[in-house]
Amino acid sequence: MSDLWIAPSILSADFARLAEEVDAVVAAGADLIHFDVMDNHYVPNLTIGPLVCEALHKHGTKVPIDVHLMIRPVERIVPDFARAGAGFITFHPEAVDHVDRTIDLIREHGCRPGLALNPGTPLDWLDYTLEKLDLVLIMSVNPGFAGQRFIPMALRKLEAVRRRIEASGRSIRLEVDGGIKVENIQACARAGADTFVAGSAIFGSGDYAATLRAMRAQIAGA
After folding, report:
1. Catalytic annotation on 36?
2. Domain of 24, in residue numbers
3. Residue-wise pLDDT tens digits, 81-134
């Protein structure tokens, strides 16, 4: 696995063939599998839960599962996803009462904690949490649906978070999620992202391996 990771989002996969789809993108070179969990409460959509994560883990998915919780409340479901085989668990600070406590809960259950920031969410949430995180996720769309258009303001946010990470001296992944395509992934890499979530751009393409190669070529040119 390189230092620059591409994480296909299974939100855009064919759910009737989910294990086959995951095997295909991993064979094509995916570094992570991005697992979008929505509750029709925090966001206006309803997707998948720990049972599907566990099924993929037991199936033998050979890369870490990157669980993105777009739900409220968060704490109740963290142990379930940890037992189901999650590697990273990322949540939104607005969805919990105690951000610091939730970060600790994720780590106590053997997973790597991440904090997700929506387009309108200020970076102030990182002032007292960055030193405890393994990942910061910058949303480049408003969460809830696949196939949305990239919000360019996210580039400024990525740059600002990259500066914070470098100042911290810690190894923290900087992930970007939403509208990521071959055409804009290089700009995200230049802004400081090192982990790139892409759904429809990969699963909607005719050739997963070719799309991933094209994305890596763009990242390499950043």
Report:
1. yes
2. 5-220
3. 999 999 999 999 999 999 999 999 999 999 999 999 999 999 999 999 999 999
Q: How many helices (H) and strands (E) does the chain have?
A: 8, 8
Spot the catalytic one: 39, 134, 177, 194. 177
Enumerate long-range contacts of 149-157, CB under 8 Å, 24 or more apart: 149/179, 150/178, 150/179, 150/180, 150/181, 150/184, 151/119, 151/178, 151/179, 153/119, 154/119, 154/178, 154/188, 154/191, 155/187, 155/188, 155/191, 156/191, 157/117, 157/119, 157/123
Question: Does residue 64 have a cis peptide bond before it, meaning omega lies within 30 degrees of 0?
Answer: no
List the structure tokens of 211.
């799309």
- Letter for the amino acid at 126? L
Residue 31 annotated in active site: no
CATH number, residue 102? 3.20.20.70
Catalytic residue among 31, 36, 66, 134: 36
Q: pTM score, two decimals?
A: 0.97
Count structural domains, the chain: 1
